[in-house]
Amino acid sequence: MTLYLQAHLRHGKDFELKVNHELPLEGVTALFGRSGCGKTTLLRIIAGLERPKGAVVRFGGQHWQRGRQFLPLHKRRIGLVFQEHSLLPHLSARENLLYGYQRTPPEQRRLHPDEVTAMLGIEHLLDRRIDQLSGGQRQRFSLGRALLISPQLLLLDEPMAALDTQTKREIMPFLARMAAESGVPIVMVSHSPDEVTRLADRVVFMQNGQIQNVETLREALARPDSPLFDDAGAASVLEGTLDEAGEDNARPFGPPEARLWLTSSALAAGMNRTRISILARDVSLSLVDPQHISIQNHLPVTIERIDPPRDNRCVVACRTADGQLLLAEITARAVQQLGLATGKQVYALIKSVALLA
Ligand SMILES: Nc1ncnc2c1ncn2[C@@H]1O[C@H](COP(=O)(O)OP(=O)(O)OP(=O)(O)O)[C@@H](O)[C@H]1O
Known about the structure:
Elements: E1 2-11, E2 15-24, E3 28-32, H1 39-47, E4 56-59, E5 62-66, E6 69-70, H2 73-76, E7 78-81, H3 93-102, H4 113-120, H5 135-147, E8 153-157, H6 165-182, E9 186-190, H7 193-199, E10 202-207, E11 210-216, H8 217-222, E12 235-241, E13 250-253, E14 260-263, E15 273-279, E16 283-286, E17 297-306, E18 313-320, E19 325-331, H9 332-338, E20 345-350
Parallel strand pairs: 3-9, 3-10, 7-8, 8-9
Antiparallel strand pairs: 1-2, 1-4, 4-5, 5-6, 10-11, 12-15, 13-14, 16-20, 17-18, 17-20, 18-19
Helix pairs in contact: 3-5, 4-5, 5-6
The structure holds adenosine-5'-triphosphate.
């Protein structure tokens, strides 16, 4: 499935959007870029809320806009979720959830309310009034309501922007699960690298009203100058299965040959397949598998690339035994002293407390 977008539009004197791209649509596609670069404008064009003259919007084989042809939002079968929830206050949480479902012809329904409430963990909240729900819970209902119209495409405009950091962390695993289990492609606007690395499969980098680059998340994280790295520097994302904790509260993550141990306080609730984000500066390298050391995670890895030093620090890209890319940031001096080179097998050491699930 692809989404073809060709549009040229101006907002006032200062902003011009010009795109001509075919985007693959599988899983979650993030529109990422600085404030004002045109992410929301592009999302509105996809939704049909903005109708630039001469634009072409094609979803799969279906033209949503071309020449005089224009399909309005309600005919595009799109689920929309914005920053602020748009639940109806006079209806209960359940009635809000089912609002679109009941208006969807039965032959078009692909998702069942029970499935969606389980995905979003909102079964116990169905009988509440909207004003009895927290901000994060309301957004979960907004997502559920959008999903229950069985949309062909889900458009999310910074759905977590109005939530505090803690609530964001709580809602993120539900969003990730929904993306993985619903089978509905998602296009999500975000300017948060954290959100993008946890949720997206593909990133559309935007700047000054243009699409600069479209990459898979893995490609976007593999380059040293990735716009997804913020002030904390380079980071890698590992994907794996999180198992139950043993008596010591440590939860194993990933297959035995690339096993990490996570502390229970850093766990995502109710999720098995998950992603963890690791800052490169939290990863050290050793030529041997060290004993008698407090660091719990020792992964055998193969060095794939050593980036040129910046401020006397090098990012070393390593391949784990299960084929994922792990970045370590160490001093240029250490690279030299250890004789590190491409192809060399070493151990990556990561403190459990540095692992964020
Ligand atoms: N209706 C409008 N009339 C005039 N200018 C507009 C209108 N809508 C958006 N703009 C301008 O168009 C530009 C792009 O806005 P847009 O909302 O698409 O950016 P964005 O990347 O989504 O930003 P943010 O991350 O801050 O939401 C901005 O300069 C904005 O001020």
